[in-house]
Every structure is written in C-alpha cells, then in structure tokens.
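Worked example

This section walks through a single chain of length 176. The input is the sequence exactly as stored; nothing has been trimmed or padded.
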Amino acid sequence: MDNQTLETLIRRICQEDNGAFEELYRLMKGGVFSFAYSLCGNWHTAEDVLQDTFLRIRQYAGTYQPGTNPKAWILTIAKNLALNTLRSGKRFADDNPGEDISAVYEQDQTEMIENRVLLDQLLKTLNQTERQIVALHAVSDVKHADIAKMLGKPYGTVLWTYSNAVKKLKKELNNS
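Given that input, the structure is written out below as tokens.
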C-alpha cells in the first residue's frame, strides 16, 4: 500500500465514496489498531480508538493535505485519540483476552485467544516507546524517518530502539 493509493482513497472519501472508505479501513485497520494498542496497552480501548479514528477520517478527510504522508496523518489521528482517551480515563479497567470473542468467532476461538494472549505477553516486555516504534514500523509499515518525526525523536534513536525491541521480542518468543 503506497502513499498514492492512500491519497486517492482519502480524496474519494471526501466525495462520500463508501467503497473507498471500506478499502482504506481494510488496508489500515491492522496498523491503526496495533499502534493504538501500543499506546493504550488495552485491547478494548485500542478497538475504540480504531473505530473513532476511522470516524474522524471520514469526518475530516477534506483537511488532508495532498502530497504529505497519508499514513502519518491517519496514525496521528489515532495517536491523538488514544492519548485523549488515556487522559480522560475512558478506558476499560479489565482487559480480559477472549471476552465476547466466542460469540463472534466460535470456530477460531481457541486459536484467537492463544494468539492474543501471546501478543499481550510479548508486547508487555517492551516499554511504551518500543511498542510504538515496533507497531508503526513492523505493522503499519511506516519508515523509521517518519516515525522519528511523528514521535519527535532522533532518527538514530528510533533505529536503535527498534533494533533492541526486536531483539527483546525474539528472546521473549524463544522463552515462551
């Protein structure tokens, strides 16, 4: 998914093209969720941030400046919503992996819960900055230079942090 494709989808969303909105959601939902989860540390809160992000995208698509980085624009919306949610205290106190999943995904319930628990365990080995950088780069495919700008950190620090975080994840995965 390149920037041109995302820009085209955002332009089409401005014209109230529901198909473009659905396509953008399909392309970006994993990255937005992962980034929100890296900020919130709570599955349910990240799901709320994901939904709110796409509502904002639909509402404010006309404010996107063509020629800028559409991924960064989308993830900045998610970041602002996640931080506002954390500040306001509107998050779920209890994050129970698997809650209500069986009603929706009965066939894959066990595997989904196991994967979610493993993901939670792995991500808890990282600090918040490491989680953000890994989510942005590995899941959302944001370049390290763009991550540095988004987080206000030096480029070298982002590279170093990413490298160390990946090493921690590999070590934790081998120990699991």
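What to look for: Confidence is low (pLDDT under 50) at residues 92-109.
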